[in-house]
Design brief:
Strand content: 5-15%
Strand order of the largest sheet: 1-2-3-5-4
Distance between the termini: 49 Å
Largest sheet: 5 strands, antiparallel
CATH class: Alpha Beta
Shape: globular
CATH superfamily: HIT-like
Number of domains: 1
Order of helices and strands: HHHEEEHEEHH
CATH topology: HIT family, subunit A
Number of helices: 6
Structural class: alpha+beta
Length: 178
């Protein structure tokens, strides 16, 4: 094929690594963990436009946004507006709205993404795997019977078929349509 060059013909020392170019993650890398501690992404998102904050729905005590670094396309997060670290510190109103928005998020994703199932969960504290451990957030990760392909298993790579802005628009439109 014209334009293709074998890796062995390129400068440098060949290795066994595959590269997945993700320049959109550079903002996250450059900000570093200290910046995330200084400016909570879940406290700053509601002050942005819905498109800029990746917000798909704003409720009374909580809101729903796309995960900036999703496990799967359509990965949603349900967050209280209030900066609270763990579920046991949330008010009854926040807990009720987290539950209701999680149900609605599942319904919307089922309609928009035609997913077959979900992973739902919260990581409470850094030791439990929370990337942002100081602000409570529930994950809604859509799953498909066919999403366990060779990419994540062999190549440790996730293929995301749509840009975040496109996913946000589809989910937000479906959310407000009902």
């Amino acid at each position: 094929m014209p334009g293709l060059v074998a890796a062995s013909d390129l400068p440098g020392v060949p290795d066994a690594f595959q590269r997945l170019w993700t320049p959109h993650r550079m903002a996250y890398i450059q900000a570093g963990a200290d910046a995330m501690r200084e400016t909570c992404p879940f406290c700053s998102a509601p002050g942005k436009s819905d498109a800029d904050g990746l917000i798909v729905h704003r409720g009374e005590t909580c809101y729903v946004l796309l995960n900036l670094f999703p496990y799967n396309s359509g990965h949603l997060l349900v967050c209280p507006y209030r900066h609270v670290a763990t579920y046991d510190l949330a008010t009854t109103e926040e807990v009720d709205e987290i539950a209701a928005l999680t149900q609605r998020g599942m319904q919307v994703l089922r309609a928009v993404a035609r997913c077959d199932g979900f992973n739902i969960g919260m990581n409470q504290g850094r030791v439990a795997g929370a990337g942002v451990d100081e602000h409570l957030h529930q994950h809604i990760v859509p799953r498909w019977e066919t999403d366990a392909n060779f990419f994540p298993i062999i190549a440790r790579t996730k293929a995301l078929p749509q840009l975040l802005g496109e996913v946000r628009e589809a989910v937000a439109s479906a959310w407000s349509a009902a």
